[in-house]
Structures are given as structure tokens and as C-alpha cells.
Amino acid sequence: MNERWEHEPDAPGQGDDAVLPVPSDDVLLAALRQAVDARRAVPPEFVHAAKEAFAWHNIDTELAQLTFDSSRAADRLASTRSEAASIRALTFTSARLTIELEVTAESLIGQVIPTQTATIELHTPSGVADVIASDEIGCFSVQPIPSGTFRLRCRALGGIDVLTSWITL
């Protein structure tokens, strides 16, 4: 694409009032093809990383880290149990609250600690998938169990806004 879109003055005296030529359709299509090709050249992992970085635009949200996963603890305790538990337990902890989860065959059951009413948002990589209200003691249920990667955002009174790390069950 060597055609120029800009008009250079041919003679002295031509200034900003000069009429610029309109590029041909072929030139515009070539520029569009180049833009699409450049978009495709970005590796998918860069796009994913950029989306993840944008997710932190709300810096006031606390991150709740996964501090307990019974599936990992089961590996260490395998020698002391004869039968594996049918429920998986997860604990996410932040400075202001804890979110405890139990994964059953049909649902994801949770509780916000300290006990309080809260709004729980189920986030997937494509956005907010569901909004659930907890009861007065902080209990909530998600049905069906999320099939892929997800995280929870908990908003409670007093400006509490906590986001769990991503998890896949």
C-alpha cells in the first residue's frame, strides 16, 4: 500500500485550503485488510491478559484468595481416610470477609462470614452470569454449578466489595 492519502502542495502558495483527494475504494479496502490482519496477529494470550488487566479497573475491590481447597487437603490426608468425601469445600479469604463454599452434586452452597446479607455476583470470563442475594446469615446457593472458570463478587453493607480469585471446579 504505497499510495499516499495525504496531498502535498505542488506549488508555493497552496496551503491548508488545498482540497485533499479522496482515496479510491481499492486503497480503502487495502487499508481495511491491513487493519484486520494486524488484529489477527495479536496472540490470544495477549488479548486474554489485556482483558484480565482491565478487570482491575475497580481498584477498591478487595481480592479474596483461595486459602483452603478440600481436594488439595485430601491428597495429604489420603492415608488417614478410607473413603473420599462427596462434598468439596473451598474457602476464600480477604481482609474484611470470608466466603465459604461447598460443591455438591447439584449446587454450589455458600456463606459469607461474618454473617450478613450480601449480593453475590457470579462472574464468568464473558461477564456477569448471575446475581444472587444471600439471606440474613449470609447463606446463598448457585444452581446449576458453573461449568467453566468463574469467580464470585460479594457486595455487602459498609462498602464491602470483595472479588474471589478465578476457579474451575
Low-confidence stretches: none
Work out the number of β strands: 10
**CATH fold-type name of the largest domain:** Immunoglobulin-like
How many angstroms separate the termini?
Answer: 50 Å
Strand content: 25-35%
Order of helices and strands: HHEHEEEEEEEEE
> How many helices in DSSP terms?
3
Q: How would the global form be characterised?
A: elongated
Radius of gyration: 27 Å
Give a brief rundown of this model.
The protein is α+β, with helices and mostly antiparallel strands. 21% of the residues lie in helices and 35% in strands.
Q: What does it look like?
A:
Helices cover 21% and strands 35% of the residues. The protein has two domains: 25-55, no CATH class; 60-168, Sandwich (Immunoglobulin-like), CATH 2.60.40. Strands 1, 2, 3, 4, 5, 6, 7, 8, 9 and 10 form a ten-stranded mixed sheet that branches. The model has no long low-confidence stretch (mean pLDDT 83). The chain has 169 residues and is of the alpha+beta class. It is elongated, with a radius of gyration of 27 Å. It contains three helices and ten strands, in the order H-H-E-H-E-E-E-E-E-E-E-E-E.
